[in-house]
Design goal:
seven-stranded mixed β-barrel, two-stranded antiparallel ribbon, 7 helices, globular
Length: 266
């Protein structure tokens, strides 16, 4: 089947006003959309994109990454249909703790289980385009108990890559932004990628970016940025150190925003 580009994606693609050299191909520039500090990080990373990843990372980070073969992300093997975009399937309930009776299990849980967030359009599916690889995939995004903010209907359903950072520049950028107290961090993760085509596109993305030592960045707005941290980088991503029950086979979504978010009430 021949895929056509949606009007929303076509509109997003026109936002760049100039082109920058990135590896062996030209991709749209995002300078007009990025804040000066973020633009500096992205430009520094793009300037060294053609170099081996080991040259972009510190010695300590490289040693940790070398010992981490990432397990593949689990998915449901089924064909993605148009009806799936309006579905609202819940995650399967986890089995009760063997140490608690059914009644005790319900009373002992203080926080709600993970749930799939919804986009501004109300769907729980997000279409992600990786511009450098000219590939895209559709996925759900889950918020678990480690996410302290309400983020339903906060993001658009169509997300377009705007730049790339190496892991060391990412750690430094997050630290400098959050130490002022003006930016909030939200931790989410990709979940429930359905269909062979979707999974193949996702694997192509994370394997090639891990080989290059890069994290993808999505500019949601002038005050909100989204970064995908794939399995290989989880242990060296400093902003995820405090996340409870970190899934080593998942790709986490780190959101940096100045927008005011409502904290969850438990």
């Amino acid at each position: 089947m021949v895929k056509t580009r949606s009007p929303a994606i076509a509109h997003s693609a026109k936002l760049g006003e100039k082109f920058v050299q990135d590896c062996d191909e030209v991709v749209p520039s995002t300078s007009s959309l990025l804040s000066p500090s973020l633009e500096e990080y992205v430009n520094q990373s793009q300037a060294s994109f053609s170099s081996p990843s080991s040259q972009c990372l510190t010695k300590e980070t490289s040693e940790i990454l070398a010992s981490l073969p990432p397990p593949p992300m689990q998915y449901v093997k089924s064909d993605l249909t148009a009806s799936a975009f309006t579905s609202d399937n819940e995650l399967p309930s986890p089995p009760p703790s063997p140490l608690l009776s059914p009644l005790q299990s319900h009373s002992a849980v203080a926080k709600p289980r993970a749930h799939h967030i919804t986009s501004r359009s109300g769907t729980d599916l997000f279409h992600i385009t990786i511009s450098k690889l000219k590939t895209s995939f559709t996925t759900k995004i889950a918020a678990d108990e480690s996410c302290k903010f309400e983020v339903d209907r906060f993001f658009p359903s169509i997300l377009l890559e705007k730049g790339r950072l190496n892991i060391d520049d990412f750690n430094k950028f997050i630290y400098e932004k959050t130490k002022s107290g003006k930016w909030n961090l939200v931790h989410l993760k990709l979940s429930s990628i359905e269909g062979t085509s979707n999974m193949n596109s996702y694997k192509k993305f994370y394997k090639e970016y891990e080989a290059l030592g890069r994290l993808t960045m999505i500019q949601v707005s002038d005050t909100t940025k989204m970064f995908f941290v794939t399995p290989k980088f989880l242990r060296v991503c400093k902003c995820l150190n405090g996340v409870e029950n970190l899934s080593k086979s998942s790709t986490y979504v780190v959101v940096l925003t100045k927008d005011k978010l409502t904290e969850k009430s438990y």
